[in-house]
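ok posting inputs for the NDP job
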Amino acid sequence: MSQKVALVTGGSRGIGAACALALGRAGYKVAVHYRSGEEGAKAIVAELPAGQAKAYRFDLSDPAASQELIKAVKEDLGSLDVLVNNAGVAIDQVLAFAKPEDFDTLIATNLRPVFLLSKYAAKVMIRQRSGRIINLSSVVGHTGNAGQSMYAATKAAITGFTQSIAQELAAAGILCNCVAPGFIATDMTKDLKDEVKQAILTKVPLKRLGTPEDIAHAVEFLASDKAAYITGTTLHVNGGMYTT
Ligand code: NDP
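and the output
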């Protein structure tokens, strides 16, 4: 059996870096995508055995980038078995002060690349008759959160998108799921004021923020043979703050 190939977007830091490392350690060849964090992406590549991982730089808010990234990974690494759509940004603002241009940035960064990368990855996976697409949504896409209406809209959209493609692609052996993190200690949450963090923790039964590794374990599971009968669902990894 040839080594499977995983592409992780936003693999330069935070959750994406943890996913890239976990998949690499589980034996996948890993394409570590980044936008500006070259040092971080190259550090992940360096942690894995020589030749097992490669870094790819693309700004995914550029509409042409997604297709180019999939093409480059397929050409360099030979196949594409697992796509982890992780790259994303948060721009928080209450509705009254929310800027339309920020909404456009969120759609262009968090949502459109999930659509485009899944579309071009699915073309490769359909030919292979197998594949996994794992999309990072968010607890706030399910619960909403005051001040995050724009961000939550992109994350809720990812859920509906994933459920739909799961139904389309099942016949081709491609399984599509979301992982919905709660509040995770990364750059995205590091600037939250202490009182905001404390308020969040009052809603988390496990009484801590999650770690990037908590999320990477869920992604690794959904990529594995152990998740062979799971598609179209969301795995919530949030310390119990929201349950279904
Ligand atoms: P970070 O802010 O730590 O990292 C974001 C990553 O996305 C970076 O690797 C960054 O690349 C990449 N990225 C941002 N913009 C672009 C772009 N235009 N093109 C390509 N790549 C881009 O985020 P987290 O690790 O915290 O979050 C990862 C995912 O998990 C996101 O989708 C986020 O919405 C989701 N999530 C996070 C939660 C949290 O509490 N942290 C909670 C729920 C969901 P670079 O550094 O190279 O520029």
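notes: The longest helix spans residues 100-128. The pocket of NDP is lined by residues 10, 12-16, 34-37, 59-61, 86-89, 109, 136, 138, 181, 183-184, 186-189 (CB under 6 Å).
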